[in-house]
UniProtKB/TrEMBL annotation:
It comes from the Bacteria. InterPro entries: Cupin_2, RmlC-like_jellyroll, RmlC_Cupin_sf. Keywords: Signal. Residues 1-29 form the signal peptide. Residues 55-116 form the Cupin type-2 domain. This is Cupin domain-containing protein. PANTHER family: CUPIN DOMAIN PROTEIN (AFU_ORTHOLOGUE AFUA_3G13620).
């Protein structure tokens, strides 16, 4: 491989990395009042699977609409009171210290029903390479 080809390959990889970071930031900034902070991402011993941990903060009164994940979501509420709507079941409200398990592909939504910022630690066990979140209309 020539020096020119190596430089071109490095520039292409750099462009992909920058594009991924910008796309991730844009996706996170799409909804006012919701902050998603990526904490860690690791491959698992199960082929094609990875674990991802994200802190999600919702401002008072803010809702995050219906969505799914390409794997399981395990929620631990850190602060506040968050209401979860899972498929057509009655909504449930969780407070700091409560936990919730959401099976892969399950349509769900969350809403901060308190008067302070609500926060959760979301741990995802998902298919590697798929978008972490898909909005549902």
């Amino acid at each position: 491989m020539t020096k020119h080809q190596v430089k071109r390959k490095i520039l292409a990889i750099a462009a992909l990395v920058v594009g991924s970071v910008l796309a991730s930031s844009a996706a996170q900034a799409q909804q006012a009042g919701v902050t998603r902070t990526d904490l860690q991402r690791h491959d698992l011993s199960a082929p094609g699977r990875e674990a991802v941990q994200v802190r999600v903060d919702l401002a008072p009164g803010v809702a995050f609409g219906k969505h799914t994940h390409p794997g399981e979501e395990i929620i631990y509420v850190l602060e506040g009171s968050l209401e979860y709507q899972i498929e057509d079941k009655p909504p449930i409200t969780l407070k700091a210290g409560d936990v919730l398990f959401i099976p892969a592909g399950t349509v769900h939504a969350a809403r901060n029903v308190g008067n302070v910022t609500g926060s959760e630690l979301a741990t995802y066990i998902v298919e590697k390479g798929k978008p972490l979140l898909a909005l549902v209309k």
